[in-house]
Amino acid sequence: MYLSEQVRQDNGYTQNTVLRVVARYTLYFLPFLIAYEAYEYARAIVIHFRGLVYYGVVLDISKKLFGTPLTLVLASHRSIVLGTIAGVVYALHPLYFFLFAVYLLLRSKRLFEDLLAAFLLASVVAVTVYVVWPCAPPWIALPGVQRPPNFLLEALEFITGVRIDPNPYAAMPSMHLTMATIFAYYYYRLRKEPIVPVTWVTLMAFSTMYTLNHYFVDIVAGIALGLVSCLVGDKYLGPRLGKRLEKLVDKLVAINGQNSVKGLAAP
Question: Is residue 12 scored above 60 in pLDDT?
């Protein structure tokens, strides 16, 4: 009887350990999926309820700063090399960010929680702006320009059979730059090495303008949103979010333990 009870306890401990790991990783990465769905819902809201897009303000600011918007300047200097670089960098969004999030979780749970908090805060702000003030990207707003072909995205569409549709209402702010900034911030906090994060943000800024998906103002707004979200996430949201997620994990494990005890007690 003693051995049988010991085996049951060991099995229960193993099940709880596995459940805790599965629950923790599920709760940690579920917000990324929710943010993506919110992004898609924002697009649907704009299409069905607003029917308006804006671009005059950001375009005027770009003209005042540079005379000719930088997106138009880049559109007049096409090359295979620049197109390849811009296409690859742009197509890696958001895959690189999620892979880095997994890596960060394995290296530092606290930094991951701060990153997750920053990402959620930035997503809430960005999606709200997309709904309240939808802004058309340069490839729609500027006459006589076309986006360069992105063979990597086309190959991905061919392999997956899924149409990767660009959002014509989400130019401001640039979430490409917001997420690149969040990545850069936590990469630096983890590795204390500035070359990789600065280079990546620079490449992403170039690629978003070269592919005519964002204005210069969108890029500045995206970087600013990323920095503010990181600072707020570090100081206020990250620790609280981590504690709340751990409490949810504990509740799930406790519920599973109660169900296991009932199962053992059943005749």
Answer: no
Has residue 6 got a pLDDT over 50?
Answer: no
Q: Which two tokens stand for residue 153?
A: 């995205």
Nearest to 201, CA basis, from 228, 218, 176, 170: 176
The more confidently predicted of residues 3 and 224 is: 224
Residue 248 predicted with pLDDT over 70: yes
Query: Torsion angle of alpha carbons 21, 22, 28, 32, nearest 10°?
Result: 160
Stated pTM of the model: 0.82
The domains of the chain are located at: 52-243
- Sorted by sequence, the CB contacts under 8 Å of residue 187 that are 6+ apart come out as 100, 193, 196, 197, 200
Region 160-172: mean pLDDT is 67
CA distances from 232 to 106, 118, 237 (A): 23, 7, 7
State which H helix or E strand residue 86 sits in: helix 80-91
Q: What band does 218 get if pLDDT is binned at 50, 70 and 90? A: very high
- The secondary structure of 155-206, three-state, reads HHHHHHCCCCCCCCCECCCCHHHHHHHHHHHHHHHHHCCCHHHHHHHHHHHH
Q: Which CATH class is domain 52-243?
A: mainly alpha
Report helix, strand and coil shares of the chain as percent, to nearest 5. 80, 0, 20
Q: How far apart are CA 261 and CA 265, in angstroms?
A: 6
